[in-house]
Design goal:
The protein is built from 22 helices and 20 strands. By secondary structure, it is an alpha+beta fold. Helix 8 packs antiparallel against helix 10. The relative contact order is 0.11.
Length: about 750
């Protein structure tokens, strides 16, 4: 049985090795990540204001039990098409981990984020350019408050390709365009909160106190800061998924062993009956038959753990370093990983096999001697119509006699197809999202204007003057441009992440938004909003101010086909009245042509197709390799499960195959009787499994996407299901060829020998 146990051993080593390596890398990185909060003095939160706060304001704010630190930055558009956020080298808060090279020491030098450098093929010593400015890259770093590169905290997905962070010397920072400085302040509580509930209460109190001193442009406590927390949350969820993968595979292998042992007991029934009649106890026989599965599991666990702590650990760590800007880590012994990958698999193997053996060996010695292994009266065979050909009836008998084997095959196919489906689904979803965005953009360009904060303050006279100045400075001669209003709210807190919702105020008879917005009886929501929150026309939505408790409720009049964001569309007049913005207020332009006659300082951002597809680009970049690895593993699992069960069926029927050969049937005909029965079951299983996979994955996908801001529509490309069926059939054909060799080796004398 060397072939069978070797295949199982390889599967055990591969599975336990990968899971062990993943858990070791994951555990080591989570430890480094958690320790980094204290080691690198990570902030408890940050806020941004329009102007630098005064010394008196800082003293008043710090009376609320916090210490403030300046963490100013500015952003430069680089010549390579990406945006670089530049900080002074940190010395007090959010310290920097140097990964390679050295920190900048003079003007014209810069240390950049390691992952951004990898994604943009930048090496130490290269030069970055932004117009006439140049910086020499002196090293790669990981900023402790940017373990995940979110440019804005409300972004649906981080972007480590077109956005990077860096540090320069104070002198270099002072030489940059000071008009671009963002006055961001980090705070640390004098007395750390005991739990997240207390942290939330403290942050809300601080936000109210800040509102009395300054006008906030942003306020992000640590527990809501995706750039800090997203990495830790993701590593924790990955751990649960990988552990579940291990146990499902171990259970499948345990049942494969159980069926193998059942076949062995059937084959050795006479010997077992003799031993039992000679005084051997049932416990001794159970111990004998359980020894090999447990030994194979132990060997697989030991070798797998050795591989996990060496080569595979680095592979799994590389997957994390390919997605996140993590600091350097030190491998730590993970007792929990050892328990999960060694002790638990052995226990599963013991329990499953003990249960099967105890059930199979419950019969009396006499029954074993007579080879009568049925626990009850012999059941009548299922009557098959004589109209069926003999080969068809024979194959049906093979299927009925091996039903338990085929049930395990069906379970294995379900699991392998779920892995395969998940691996094929992501490229399908991303490709559809990118095509959908291209065909359903609101406009080729969305210009979001820099509305002065004072224009939104409570002083009506100041607001009016500021708005007049703003309107004059943002006028354009571009006839293609259409002004709109925009306002940001957020969904109510729930068990899932809070989403930012952009409310668009649209002009009557808009040439960009084709929706019935003539009255104010209701609003339109984007299709992404409707799909994520399961909304339909007639429903009501309640949203709240981002940093306040004020809530607004709107009735959904219709759904607008737009997957680029969580949006609400209403008449411009209605939006301006609802939020008391003034009749002439607007905050951006829709246009299909670039606007060239507005000062760049008045433009907050320009949303293009590239900005909307960043979530797809980043997911493809960070998870693409893992998806193909999952596909490869599922194919490997496919082949092994089919091989093991087809092999057992052939072994179980060696005497019948030998007899068929004596009667004059060829090896090919014998193979068609037994292997083709497995093929028929496989095809039927594939057809049954596809709807199971579809609905299971829909549920998993919905829960998974709730962890992200924004939404990617669930979409299965037409080629996915045929590809799954084709892969399953190809795997079967590979196994069929292997089993045909085994059938050819079965001698005709085998049947005569067993009859003696």
């Amino acid at each position: 049985e060397i072939g069978k146990y070797l295949v199982v051993l390889i599967l055990m080593i591969a599975t336990i090795g990968f899971v062990s390596g993943f858990l070791v890398a994951d555990g080591s990185m989570i430890k480094a990540y958690n320790e980094g909060f204290e080691k690198y003095k990570i902030e408890d939160g940050n806020f941004r204001v329009k102007k630098k706060i005064t010394k008196a304001q800082q003293e008043n704010i710090e009376k609320n039990g916090v210490t403030l630190y300046e963490n100013f930055y500015l952003e430069e558009a680089l010549d390579n098409g990406s945006t670089m956020r530049i900080f002074k080298n940190r010395e007090e808060i959010n310290l920097v981990c140097l990964m390679e090279g050295k920190l900048p020491e003079k003007a014209g030098e810069m240390a950049i984020d390691r992952m951004y450098a990898d994604n943009n093929k930048i090496s130490v010593g290269d030069t970055l350019k932004s117009g006439s400015q140049k910086w020499k890259v002196t090293g790669f770093v990981a900023l402790s408050d940017y373990s995940c590169l979110f440019q804005n905290n409300n972004d649906s997905m981080f972007d480590a390709i077109k956005f990077g962070v860096s540090v320069v010397t104070p002198e270099e920072f002072e030489s940059l365009n000071q008009d671009k400085i963002q006055y961001s302040y980090s705070w640390v509580y004098d007395k750390a909160p005991e739990n997240e509930k207390q942290e939330k209460k403290m942050s809300e109190d601080l936000m109210e106190a800040l509102g009395e001193e300054v006008t906030l442009e942003s306020f992000v406590p640590q527990y809501l800061n995706q750039a800090i927390t997203f990495t830790g949350d993701d590593m924790g969820s990955d751990r649960a998924m990988i552990t579940m993968l291990l146990y499902m595979i171990i259970v499948i292998i345990a049942f494969v062993f159980g069926i193998t042992i059942s076949n062995t007991i059937r084959k050795e029934a006479g010997v077992i009956g003799t031993l039992r009649a000679s005084g051997y106890t049932r416990k001794e026989l159970i111990g004998h038959y359980m020894a090999l599965p447990v030994i194979v599991t132990l060997i697989g666990a030991v070798v797998g753990n050795i591989l996990g702590y060496t080569a595979l650990k680095n592979v799994c760590a590389g997957m994390y370093y390919g997605s996140y800007s993590l600091p350097t880590y030190v491998t730590v012994w993970n007792a929990e990983a050892f328990w999960m990958t060694t002790v638990v698999p052995v226990l599963i193997m013991l329990v499953v096999n003990y249960g099967i053996l105890r059930y199979k060996l419950r019969l009396s010695p006499l029954k074993f001697l007579r080879r009568d292994l049925s626990g009850s009266r012999r059941k009548r065979a299922v009557r098959l119509s004589p109209k069926l050909g003999i080969f068809h009836r024979f194959r049906l008998r093979v299927i009925f006699q091996n039903m338990s084997n085929y049930i395990v095959l069906f379970i294995g196919i379900i699991f392998a197809n779920l892995l395969l489906f998940f691996g094929l689904l992501l490229p399908s979803v991303l490709s559809h999202y990118q095509q959908d965005i291209q065909s359903n953009m609101l406009a080729k360009y969305q210009y979001m204007l820099e509305v002065p904060v004072s224009a939104m303050s409570g002083n009506k006279l100041d607001s009016m003057l500021e708005l007049l100045q703003f309107s004059y400075g943002t006028k354009t001669e571009n006839e293609d441009a259409e002004a709109f209003s925009a306002y940001s709210l957020e969904t109510l807190p729930s068990k899932y992440k809070t989403d930012e919702v952009i409310l668009y105020g649209i002009k009557p008879d808009s040439k960009y938004i084709d929706a019935d917005l003539e009255d104010s009886e209701g609003v339109y929501i984007s299709s992404a909003y409707a799909e994520k929150f399961l909304l339909k026309p007639g429903d009501s939505i309640t949203l709240k101010e981002k940093y306040e408790k004020t809530k607004y409720t709107f009735k959904v009049k219709g759904i607008y086909k737009y997957s680029g964001g969580i949006c609400v569309f209403m008449p411009q007049e209605q939006l301006n009245d609802t939020f008391d913005l003034g009749n002439d207020y607007f905050s951006g332009y829709f246009t299909d042509k670039k606007i060239k006659d507005i000062d760049s300082s008045m433009v907050a951002s320009i949303i293009t197709q590239d900005d909307l597809t960043v979530i797809a680009d980043q997911l493809e970049d960070s998870m693409g390799d893992m998806m193909w690895l999952m596909c490869a593993f599922s194919v490997f699992l496919y082949v092994l499960v089919i091989y093991l069960l087809a092999k057992m069926i052939v072994e179980k029927n060696e005497q019948s195959i030998s007899m068929i050969k004596i009667l004059g049937y060829s090896d090919k005909e014998a193979g068609s009787l037994y292997n083709r029965a497995t093929g028929v079951v496989l095809v039927i299983s594939l057809l049954l499994v596809i709807p199971i996979c579809h609905f299971t994955m829909m549920a998993i996908y919905y829960v998974m996407m709730q962890q992200f801001n924004g939404w990617l529509t669930y979409y299965v490309a037409p080629w996915v299901y045929p590809a799954m069926i084709a892969i399953g059939i190809v795997c079967y054909l590979v196994v069929h060829m292997i089993q045909m060799k085994r059938i050819r080796r079965i001698p005709m004398g085998r049947a005569l020998k067993d009859m003696e």
